[in-house]
Amino acid sequence: MMKHKENRVNYKEIGIFILVLLAIIFILLRVIPTNFRYGILIAVGVSMIVMPMTKKKIVDHDERNYQIDLQSKAFAFNILEMVFGLLLLSFSIMHVTFIALVLTLTAYLIIKIVNLLAFSYYHKNN
């Protein structure tokens, strides 16, 4: 007999995502005073650092949920690579300062290096 499982939605992450989107929209529309913009950007940056560090709780500890979690992370990583490419291209076209290009490229290279090192590590140990 199959047990009916409810789809669990993580409302905390969805709420934070919506708040970040609203903050970005308000910053772009210049609704928020200049002094608060940097504070909001700092808060968003801190939340982007802290959120991945907190363990994501999977409600049902079965293999299917772990596979879904891994597939969603893989899909997000593929989208992230495309976003970085588009960001670098748009920064180059807009003639953004060289330091912004270097920092964006450095972030992309760090992600790729971690990806290659993790692939090598898991390939040897599994």
| Euclidean distance between termini CA atoms | 34 Å
Name the helix and strand elements from N-terminus to C-terminus, one letter apiece. Answer: HHHH
Q: Which structural class matches the secondary elements?
A: mainly alpha
The tally of strands reads 0
Shape call:
globular
Count the helices. How many? 4
- On the 0-100 scale, what is the average pLDDT? 76
Radius of gyration: 19 Å
Strand content: under 5%
Give the fraction of residues assigned to helices: over 70%
- Spans of 5+ residues with little confidence (pLDDT < 50)? none
For the largest beta-sheet, the strand count, sense and barrel status come to: none
Kindly summarize this structure in a few lines.
The chain is mainly alpha-helical and 126 residues long. The protein has four helices and no strands. The relative contact order is 0.05.
Kindly describe this structure.
The chain is mainly alpha-helical and 126 residues long. Helix content is 77%, strand content 0%. Helix 3 runs antiparallel to helix 4. The longest helix has 31 residues. 0% of the residues are buried. The mean pLDDT is 76.
What is the element layout, followed by pairings?
Blueprint lengths: L10 H18 L5 H20 L9 H31 L4 H28 L1
